[in-house]
Structure formats: C-alpha cells, structure tokens
Amino acid sequence: MGHLKLMKVLVTGGSGLVGKAIQHVVREENGAKEGEEWIFLSSKDANLMDMGETRAVFEKHRPTHVIHLAAMVGGLFKNMKFNLDFWRNNVYINDNVLQAAHEVGTVKVVSCLSTCIFPDKTTYPIDETMIHNGPPHESNFGYAYAKRMIDVHNRAYFQQYGRCFTAVIPTNVFGPHDNFSIEDGHVLPGLIHKAYLAQKEGKPLTVWGSGIPRRQFIYSLDLARLFLWVLREYSEVEPIILSVGEEDEVSIREAAEAVVEGLGFKGEVVYDTSKADGQFKKTASNAKLRKYQPDFKFTPFKQALKETCTWFVDNYDTARK
Ligand SMILES: NC(=O)c1ccc[n+]([C@@H]2O[C@H](COP(=O)([O-])OP(=O)(O)OC[C@H]3O[C@@H](n4cnc5c(N)ncnc54)[C@H](OP(=O)(O)O)[C@@H]3O)[C@@H](O)[C@H]2O)c1
C-alpha cells in the first residue's frame, strides 16, 4: 500500500466558501485518490476556539493531513468594527488546531493566510518573504496579526519537532457558498447581492468607495484545486502565494462592471465616496507558484464571476447573506 492510500484528511472550516469548493473538487472532480478519507468539519462539529473540543475532534479522527481553513472572516467594514474579536478568535483557533494536530501526530497541515495581512507600506509586487516586514493596514490589524502568527507557529513546529506545517496565501477569494452579506461580506459577494436587490427594486447599484482600488481575485474552485496540489506535493514550511498573475489585477470599478454583466443588471451604477476604500492595492507575485505550476490554468475572471452570480440567483433563499 502506497503512502497516499493512508491519507486521512481533516478539513477545518469545511462548510465555508473555500471548504465547500474543496468538497466539490474532492467529490465531483475526482480530486480524492483511491483509499483516501476526507472529513469536512463545521463549527457544529467542534468550536475550535475551545481547546477541549478541538482535542476531542482531533482524537476522534486522528488525521494524517489537515487543511486548516476555520477562521473568523469578513470584509473591510466588519474588520474595522471588530479588530479585537478578529485577533482573539483567530489566535485561539490557530493555536488550538495546530497543537491538536501536533498531539495526534498529523504529518502535514496546510493553513490559510491572506494577502491582506501584508505590510501596508511595502514595495510591489508583494512576495512570500515580506509577511513580517512592517505593520498591516490599520483597518484589519487584528485579523492580520493573528494570521501572521500562523507562520510563526509553522516555523516553530518545524524547528522544535520537524513538523511539515505550512500555509498558503490566497488573494481575495470568491465563488459559490460565499458570505453574500452586504454589511459584513467581501467586496464581490456584497456587490452581487446589492446588484441583485437593485435589479429587483429598480434602483441604482451603489458601490461603496471610489472604485479605484485594485485587487487580484481567485475563484474558489481554482484555489481548491491548488490546495490539493499543496497538500500532496509542496514540501516547504515557508508559505506560498496562490494568486492569478499581476496582469490580472482589476479595479473595483472593473469588478462592479463584471457583476453588472454577470447578473444582467440594467440600472445605473453610482459610487459612494463617503465610504472607505481600504488598502489601495496589494498586488501579489505568483512567481513562486508559477515556478512549481507553470501550466495551471485559472478560470477567466468574468466566467468565474458569472458562475458565481448564477449560483447566487439559483440559491438565493439558502445562501448566506
Ligand atoms: N474569503 C476570502 O477572500 C479569503 C481570502 C484569503 C484567505 N482566506 C482564508 O480562507 C479560509 C477560509 O475562508 P472562507 O472565506 O471559506 O470563510 P467562511 O466562508 O467564512 O468559512 C469559515 C469557516 O470557518 C468555520 N469556523 C468559523 N469559526 C469557527 C469556530 N470557532 N470553530 C469551528 N469552525 C469555525 C465556519 O464554520 P460554520 O460554517 O459552521 O460557521 C466555516 O466553515 C480562512 O482561513 C480565511 O482567512 C479567505
């Protein structure tokens, strides 16, 4: 029996945007290999802020591999309001998960950082070596510092115990099963929801901010496919940025236009410049990813966005919003 036959993968945060995409790839795109077992957790299985519950769920499943996604997550406006909660909740979750994985002898953990945790004042493009080079943007410092500490954990587990605990750094993720909350969600799902309502009510679509900031977006299904590759083949402890290329960065205005197209929105689009813009840009380099995966094909942005809009319309009643 080969090594892969023995893989038992526990996915924390398995019910969220990224977790559902990994479920899709594993179950519907033949992403799982023969003999592998995949377990997807939600907060109903264990509150990972609690060490007792975290230990119990790790003892129960004794995973050989972990994809650690569970986190308190939110868009700009939720981050600005709850920096303390973002810091504390995520620090507890990450410390509990990594320690419980260590205690049951998990050989590999892939955690999830984010490009929005990088220093605010930096040179571009951002790369994997720059995570700790300066303070993050003040809007999300609680989330950013908590996420940065995962990298500290990973290096320390390797140094002290030789564990292969690593992390990926995705840019802004979007796709089916996102949180479409207008107040608390990320920019794209918030825009999709607002455009959907504006269409129904015959009102203009109001985009928060100037529309000028620029972002790289990654489709959750592309991220899921890359996660499987990292889990199986990437052997560095240092994190790796998972992103489309620098040339694929779009402005919020272009993103709003793609939402308008994806939903077939016919009304007027206005920009509310009294609302915050957040970081102007956080352009990330995917050179390291391209070194390992020169041929990986990302789903074109407009196609992925259209699929997401269609999913939202089809699942409006049950979607998180
Ligand atoms: N979305 C993005 O743009 C983005 C970008 C970069 C990185 N990331 C990272 O990607 C990972 C997944 O994000 P996502 O967008 O998929 O988030 P999400 O849709 O909000 O899902 C969060 C997941 O974490 C679980 N969770 C939250 N608190 C928990 C707790 N106390 N105990 C146990 N489980 C808990 C949730 O369970 P329930 O469903 O039961 O609540 C859910 O499965 C996160 O680590 C996030 O930081 C996201």
UniProtKB/TrEMBL annotation:
The keyword Heme does not apply. Keywords: Isomerase, NADP, Oxidoreductase. InterPro entries: Epimerase_deHydtase, GDP_fucose/colitose_synth, NAD(P)-bd_dom_sf. Pfam families: Epimerase. The keyword Lipid biosynthesis does not apply. It is an enzyme of class 1 (oxidoreductase). Its EC number is 1.1.1.271. Residues 9-245 form the NAD-dependent epimerase/dehydratase domain. Coiled coil: none annotated. Pathway: Nucleotide-sugar biosynthesis; GDP-L-fucose biosynthesis via de novo pathway; GDP-L-fucose from GDP-alpha-D-mannose: step 2/2. GO terms for molecular function: GDP-L-fucose synthase activity; isomerase activity. Catalyzes the two-step NADP-dependent conversion of GDP-4-dehydro-6-deoxy-D-mannose to GDP-fucose, involving an epimerase and a reductase reaction. Belongs to the NAD(P)-dependent epimerase/dehydratase family. Fucose synthase subfamily. This is GDP-L-fucose synthase. It comes from Salarias fasciatus.
